[in-house]
Amino acid sequence: MKKLLVSLLLLAVLVQARAGEGMWLPLFLKQLNEAEMKSMGMKMNAEDIYSVNKGSLKDAIVSFGGGCTGEIISGQGLVLTNHHCGVGYIQSHSSVEKNYIDNGFWAKSRAEEIPNPGLFVTFIVRMEDVTAQALQGVTAGMSERDRQSAIDRNLNTIRANAAKESYQETMIRPFYKGNQYFLFITETYRDVRLVGAPPASIGSYGHDTDNWVWPRHAADFSLFRVYAGPDNKPAEYAADNVPLQPRHFLPISMDGVAEGDFTMIFGFPGRTDEYLPAVAVDNMVNVLNPIRIGMRDKSLAVINEAMRNSTEVKIQYTAKQSRIANAWKKWMGESQGVNRTGGIARKQQLEADFQRRVDGNAAWKQSYGALLTDYKKLYEQIMPYAKTRDYVSELGVNIELFQLVSTLNRFITIYDNNGVAGFDARKPQLVSYLENFYADYRPEIDKQVMAALMEEYFNKVTVDHLDPFAVEQIGFAGKDYDVFAATVFAKSMLDDKDEMLKALESSDVFIQRLKSDYAFTLSRSIITHNEQKVLPEYNAIRTKLDLLERNYMQAQMEVFTEKRFYPDANSTLRVTYGKAEGYDARDAVNYRYMTTLDGVMEKYKPGDYEFDVPQRLRELHAAKDYGPYGVNGEMPVCFIGSNHTTGGNSGSPAIDAWGNLIGLNFDRTWEGTMSDLNYDPTICRNIMVDARYLLFIIDKFAGAGHLVQEMKLVYPKSKPAKKGKN
Ligand code: ASP
């Protein structure tokens, strides 16, 4: 089967894919993509991008903190990533007196670089296709459970036998919905220090209004440095660790990017679902997205208002707010985009074609004939559970007390299973969690969020999925959600740090009080009810759907021989490529591919929460003082391209034809946010900050030119290096 799939993939190379679509595996670039990339203007070879034998671009790319991408841009371990990827760390070092969110932060020397406990970056040393070993002994007739245990056993063997150094790790991931498996050997560095960040008024200029939108004018970046032990190997934080000497770092092009130039994004895209049947996409964009959006509308109304009224709250809630708002706005764009471009109808057409081909071939008909009908039936069954699941999970995402309760509950389990001694052993961990939690916690905000979201829960969740205890309690509150939330907070110690820490002095007392705490009992009751009455049904159907999705993926690869298939994103290293290009957004609206500092000033609203511009930037603009970074009196700011990206690609480098950094990926355009479900090359564009704007902000705006000095600036177009390399 694996051979068949690989030869289908190879055969498909001959066929032109939709330009720009695809998140490709670095391992197969030579076979699948190199020719096309060169035809689009790339001057490198696949080996310059990914090689296990010599330093290649991949050695400059890191998974940043697990959810973003970063890249090494100096021989001394300097890492570039997005502001929105670093903001949680930037915030953790901020206070009203040292407000790095509003004022930015620039370390003037190594000694001023700030450590970030918990932050790590991971390099990929190499990847291998281990499908054959992973699926050894797996047969068609096996139950899902037996199949999974056979695979798990195989994966353990693969891990145990993988050739690697003691300081390296292994990771195996399924691809193509579980039809293929790849092994990754990785190196993780855990001493990563904050080096620099622009003020939020530059790093996330335009905030929620501009998020997911083009034209864009933010310099969404922050700088960190990876430190290693004296032997250049991964080491836990130590004051005398030294800056990492990377195998490769990205030179930065001062020649910038012109319309039509080849562009490539290298990073760790998080999750896409390009091969789902129409019914799944329909339910996602028309039923589930609206549920989550509705819940977040309510919590954001409360949080945004509070943040605008207090600088302290703004610092405390910056990272939380962005996490909630980012997905909220993306789902809106995604639902609109799929519907506006007829994405569901297009999938239905593809399915009709699939069915026709399958029905015309006896063997396919036998294996795949009923697949789509079965899928639809299961989808009908799962939806009532899926809806409740989303309502309840949104309670957990938005109400901080729910998050606290989940953590506390894990500690109760430790107490119940291992007694006081077991609990006491973990107590320091709990104390440090609580310190962190309360540092950024505002009960008065959370109380309002709870009132608003519980109203949704009680009114929108189907009656037989509601937790009876919660229903009884809202009855006692006379169905008044404010009274309800006020009572929960009044009758609980969870909103009071001092009381919690005091109670913790005696573990037994703490656990007893917790178990009878009103807020704790109520949230546990809602969550447990969901875990017992909703999730088992949901998971059982989900398992069947997963099996069908795996078969459908395999079937599509077999049936559509003329197509080239790339695996859905799964937070593993991928290459995506396209061109710097604008797009026709809607009737009569055409977007140019780049923005300039003039556009920042056009949006400027003095004193505004989202569009204020620091005075220094205004002055530089007024004087057109752009140093070597401007072009013909203009300062390029952002550009867009037809590169297929998703969340997780945040912080990925935009790379030119020669392998130099030309920009920093940070977002996608509004019309194209649906690209996770339904990539459309005509309107899906990723958004990047121009590398020259980053340098301008670091050097001219922030006066941190010492950082630019450790980078390597190159001129691949105007002063090309000999032998086509620089
Ligand atoms: N701005 C995005 C994010 O937050 C990046 C993307 O999805 O394109 O993940």
In a few lines, what is going on in this structure?
With 726 residues, this protein is of the alpha+beta class. The chain contains 27 helices and 22 strands.
Cα Rg: 26 Å
Share in helix: 40-55%
Number of DSSP-assigned strands: 22
N- to C-terminal separation?
43 Å
Bound ligands: aspartic acid
Question: Which stretches are low in confidence, meaning pLDDT under 50 for 5 or more residues running?
Answer: 6-17
Can you give the mean pLDDT? 95
Could you say which structural class the secondary elements and strand pairing correspond to? alpha+beta
Largest sheet: 11 strands, antiparallel
Kindly estimate the percentage of residues that lie in beta strands according to DSSP.
Answer: 5-15%
What's the tally of helices?
Answer: 27
Shape from CA axes? globular
Question: What do these coordinates show?
Answer:
This protein has 27 helices and 22 strands. Strands 1, 2, 3, 4, 5, 6, 7, 8, 9, 10 and 11 form an 11-stranded antiparallel sheet that branches. It has a 7-stranded antiparallel sheet with strand order 14-13-19-20-21-18-17. It binds aspartic acid. Aspartic acid binds next to strand 20.
Write the layout of secondary structure elements.
Blueprint: H1 2-13, H2 29-32, H3 34-39, H4 46-49, E1 61-64, E2 68-72, E3 78-81, H5 83-92, H6 100-103, E4 105-106, E5 114-115, E6 121-129, H7 131-134, H8 144-161, E7 169-175, E8 180-189, E9 191-197, H9 200-203, H10 207-210, E10 222-228, E11 242-243, E12 252-253, E13 262-267, H11 278-309, H12 311-340, H13 343-359, H14 362-368, H15 371-398, H16 400-439, H17 443-460, H18 468-476, H19 481-490, H20 497-504, H21 507-516, H22 518-533, H23 535-559, E14 574-579, E15 583-586, E16 589-591, E17 594-596, H24 597-603, H25 615-622, E18 636-641, E19 653-655, E20 661-668, E21 686-690, H26 691-701, H27 705-709, E22 713-714
Parallel strand pairs: 12-22
Antiparallel strand pairs: 1-2, 1-6, 2-3, 3-10, 4-9, 5-9, 6-8, 7-8, 9-10, 10-11, 13-14, 13-19, 15-16, 17-18, 18-21, 19-20, 20-21
The protein binds aspartic acid.
Aspartic acid binds near residues 646 and 666.
